[in-house]
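USER: Note each token:
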Amino acid sequence: QVQLVESGGGLVQAGASLRLSCLASGRTFSSYAMGWFRQAPGKEREFVGGINVSGDRKWYGDSAKGRFTISRDNAKNTVYLDMYNLKPEDTAVYYCAAGGGFRPVGVRTKPGDFDSWGQGTQVTVSS
């Protein structure tokens, strides 16, 4: 499995932008599809976005469409989540996840579709 460490979270005001990073170590990063999820207090873990192994295919949850962008740099073993025009309802712990094996692009949207998880990074958006 791959080990994942998120960074980049923090406290920002509504309308701000933030970039989250997830550094992977262990087995070959470029063989894993990657995803971002978030979880607010008292809520289920929510899919934010996913990216395939080469980085040329991306898919998003409804809450992220139009405001968030997922990308990866396989040379740096890192996946990113760029978040724009943040809203208070984006406040959550954000997790990156890695999924091994072959799945058609776009079908990984549930926590069970991923095998390895980071510890999460807190994002708080004030109004």
Notes: The mean pLDDT is 95. The first strand starts at residue 2 and ends at 7. The chain has no helices and eleven strands.
